[in-house]
């Protein structure tokens, strides 16, 4: 296994991690912005008001995008395991 192969596998793993995390991060970010605007408008500064909606948004995102995320990581893992013989030999 050459150093280039290791770097390529690492790059693919980082790309996969970003692709899997992006929908949940975006859902939490958008929910946080909406809650922040609501808190600024009503001057309510309750910490649970920011945490619970983000948690719900991330959960809903996982339910909606879960099938796509599982298919993505399964395909990546399958390709990685199938390429082991070519990397070793």
The largest sheet, given as strand count, sense and whether it forms a barrel, is:
none
> Structural class of the helices, strands and pairings?
mainly alpha
Rounded Rg: 19 Å
Please give the count of helices.
3
Compute the number of structural domains: 1
What proportion of the residues form beta strands (DSSP E)?
under 5%
Global mean pLDDT: 92
Overall strand count: 0
- Which H/E pattern describes the elements? HHH
Low-confidence stretches: none
| DSSP helix fraction | over 70%
Shape assignment: elongated
Distance between the termini: 8 Å
Mind explaining what this structure looks like?
The protein is mainly alpha-helical. The protein has one domain (3-88). The protein has helices spanning 3-42, 47-82, 84-88. Helix 1 (3-42) runs antiparallel to helix 2 (47-82). This is Flagellar biosynthetic protein FliQ. The chain crosses the membrane at residues 18-39, 51-73. Belongs to the FliQ/MopD/SpaQ family. InterPro entries: Bac_export_3, FliQ. It is found in: Cell membrane; Bacterial flagellum basal body.
């Amino acid at each position: 296994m050459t150093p280039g192969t290791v770097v390529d596998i690492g790059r693919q793993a980082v790309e996969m991690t970003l692709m899997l995390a992006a929908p949940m991060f975006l859902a939490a970010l958008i929910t946080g912005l909406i809650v922040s605007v609501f808190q600024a408008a009503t001057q309510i500064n309750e910490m649970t008001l920011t945490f619970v909606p983000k948690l719900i948004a991330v959960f809903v995102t996982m339910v909606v995008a879960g099938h796509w995320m599982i298919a993505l990581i399964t395909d990546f893992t399958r390709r990685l395991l199938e390429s082991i013989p070519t990397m070793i030999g």
